[in-house]
Specification:
Layout: E1 3-8, H1 13-24, E2 31-38, E3 41-48, H2 51-60, E4 68-74, E5 89-91, E6 96-104, H3 107-116, H4 127-141, H5 144-154, E7 157-165, E8 172-177, E9 182-185, E10 190-193, E11 205-208, E12 213-218, E13 221-226, E14 236-238, H6 254-260, H7 262-270, H8 290-294, E15 298-303, H9 305-322, E16 326-330, H10 331-334, E17 345-351, H11 357-368, E18 372-377, H12 383-386, E19 390-393, H13 406-425, H14 432-452, H15 457-463, E20 468-473, H16 477-492, E21 495-500, E22 517-521, H17 532-544, E23 548-554, E24 566-570, H18 579-596
The structure holds fructose -6-phosphate (F6R).
């Protein structure tokens, strides 16, 4: 939700800001803007629409050279996406300029006070309140730092704010509460960003700014303090990917590239954690002792959206292998229903960004109740990792397309590792080696799945006018059906629902009529107690009503071809591990259908990648 970048240094501030915004655009893309200080003046350009609209404006009406600036790409909360509501917001007759990510909860109270003092507002945003308050304080104190501290202490809610003042053209001030902020430390230049993507092509040395901290960023260095103005220590980390990992690299979309990276995301997540004998080692568990694990009597997995579906797959794995009861709870529901959580509960929070506010709030709630928190996270330095007892990083690399694909594959993989680790720690080792060894084959099998898919474009073209698609799955195929439906909704704006196949007769079959497209994830026919026959019976019930079935089935399952319009085959694996393979055709199908409709698959309407507001 909103991308933020700040810079002080010898390079062209505008080039650095626009480069950073390009990499942060996945966070919000309904308007964008920049402010720089040049010859004692604050110069601002901002435009509704994607970043390209702003860059066109800057080409036709360039800004003067500057070595300090702030830039913003917006996902609207307060006020429509218009030029006027775009950030930065200036105040005090262009004295200061400010950008913001988050929601200021007490904005209307502050606005009333400022209006009573004669301040006039130009936008409908909560952000302008912070800008006007800062200018107002500065007009009284003439002390930028003091005024900024006072504003940070006055605001309630979630905010990262960055501000510049024309009286100090070497200083960017930033404050962080409940929204992400990272410092990039360069040679004779320094950066601020919502995440490291903002500056990774300039420096890999970074600091994750903690909760309720203020940054004073200058060309020569930075200082970090708390909201009381006391100095705090910073811990640096090295960004472990480079700028090329976050570029399209010849693909026509980030999504196409990221789906093609699913084998690598699975492989890299397994790397160094699983021996050739299938034995698992998770050094990340240092923050949780064996005694902690032995004391766990239940696990609550909490996450949102796609990450929650990865959690559903992890639930099957943990219960099957480690025999610990697991429930999966949407993070935004968890803390509002007075759940039973205590020191014997392990909360597993799954998040690609590690900044999803709903998930962070659920984790804080669980921590207050004494639970231990383990996170599965894809982003170094993320708030979620900072606030967990231990973190298993998924090594999917940067995911830029707004809808998650390769991070989902990596999250499922990390869930399997966790299940194996818990099983081993609890001495329930009967299936560990078998599952562990098979897990090692998955990167190759995901790659094979991609090769086996064949041409999806013709099918996408044929189905592009479809108004509704149903997805059915059973057992571990159920969360994959949900993921397939979510991806189709997000990317192609087609109504889609995922159901447990066994539920069909209990209601959803009423939706099945001639021409309805139903995608069915078919379980392996070779598994013990296979559900294959039952799902095939579902397919026949669907066919009997004139609907069209597209099946995802295991290689060698010739029977299913008799009943389906099209079958996408995946290599054989253990049924428990099949989601990593069966999701691949669904990701490709959703992407191709959206492309056939001429839609932007990387930045679907109304969405933002990192949902940092509740
Ligand atoms: C769907 C999607 C979202 C995210 C959800 C959680 O394609 O990307 O549903 O999975 O917003 O995001 P993270 O994993 O960053 O917490």
């Amino acid at each position: 939700m909103c991308g933020i970048v700040g810079y002080v240094g010898p390079k062209s501030a505008l080039d650095v800001l626009l480069g950073g915004l390009r990499r942060l655009e996945y966070r919000g893309y309904d308007s964008a803007g920049v402010s720089v200080i040049s010859e004692g003046e604050i110069l601002t350009r901002k435009k509704a629409g994607k970043l390209s609209v702003l860059t066109e404006e800057l080409e036709s009406s360039p800004l003067s050279e500057a070595s300090i600036g702030i830039g913003h790409t917006r996902w609207a909360t307060h006020g429509a996406p218009t030029d006027g509501n775009a950030h930065p917001h200036t105040a005090g007759d262009q004295q200061i300029s400010l950008i913001h990510n988050g929601i200021i909860e007490n904005f209307s109270e502050i606005k009333k006070e400022l209006e009573a003092a004669g301040v006039e507002f130009e936008s409908e945003t909560d952000t302008e309140v912070a800008a006007q308050l800062l200018a107002y304080e500065y007009s009284k104190t003439n002390d930028f730092e003091k005024s900024f501290l006072s504003v940070a202490n006055r605001l309630q809610g979630a905010f990262t704010i960055l501000a510049i003042n024309r009286d100090d053209p070497d200083l960017v001030l930033a404050a962080r509460r409940n929204s992400p902020l990272v410092i990039g430390i360069g040679e004779g230049e320094n950066f601020l960003g919502s995440d490291v993507a903002a500056f990774v092509d300039h420096t890999k040395k970074a600091i994750s700014v903690g909760q309720d901290q203020i940054v004073k960023l200058r060309q020569s260095g930075f200082e970090l303090m708390n909201f009381a103005g006391e100095e705090v220590q910073a811990e640096t980390f090295e960004v472990n990917w480079d700028a090329s990992a976050a570029s399209k690299g010849g693909w026509d979309s980030f999504m196409a590239k990221e789906i093609s990276e699913e084998p690598q995301a699975v492989g890299d997540t397994l790397m160094g954690r699983l021996g050739a004998d299938g034995d698992v080692e998770l050094t990340e568990f240092a923050g949780l002792s064996i005694a902690d694990i032995a004391g766990i009597n239940r696990i609550i997995i909490t996450a949102c959206g796609t990450a929650a579906y990865a959690g559903e797959v992890a639930k099957y794995a943990i219960e099957q292998l480690a025999r610990i009861p697991v429930s999966v709870e949407l993070a935004h529901e968890l803390r509002y229903r007075d759940p039973v959580i205590d020191e014997n509960t392990l909360v597993v929070a799954i998040s690609q960004s590690g900044e999803t506010m709903d998930t962070l709030m659920a984790v804080r709630y669980a921590t207050e109740r004494g639970a231990k928190v383990l996170s599965i996270c894809n982003t170094q330095g993320a708030t979620l990792a900072r606030e967990s007892n231990a973190t298993i990083y998924t090594h999917a690399g940067p995911e830029v397309a707004v809808a998650s694909t390769k991070a989902f594959s990596a999250q499922i993989t990390a869930g399997y590792l966790l299940a194996l680790f818990l099983a081993k720690a609890l001495g329930k080792t009967d299936q560990v080696a078998k599952v562990g060894k098979e897990l090692l084959t998955l990167p190759r099998k995901v790659k094979k799945t991609l090769e086996m898919i064949g041409d999806v474009k013709a099918l996408a073209e044929e189905l592009k006018s479809t108004e509704s698609v149903l997805f059915l799955g059973r057992n571990v195929g159920f969360p994959i059906a949900m993921e397939g439906a979510l991806k189709l909704k997000e990317l192609s704006y087609i109504h889609a629902e995922g159901f447990a196949a066994g539920e069909l007769k209990h209601g959803p079959i009423a939706l099945v009529e001639a021409g309805q497209v139903v995608i069915v994830i078919v379980p392996s026919p070779s598994a013990e107690e296979s559900l294959h026959a039952k799902v095939l019976a579902n397919i026949q019930e669907i066919n009997a009503r004139g609907a069209e079935v597209i099946a995802i089935a295991e290689s060698g399952d010739v029977e299913v071809a008799n009943y389906a319009k099209r079958v996408f085959y995946t290599p054989k694996t253990l049924p428990l591990l099949s989601p990593v393979l069966s999701v691949v055709p669904l990701h490709i199908f959703s992407m191709e259908l959206a492309k056939a409709k001429g839609l932007d698959v990387d930045q679907p309407r109304n969405l933002a990648k990192s949902v940092t507001v509740e």
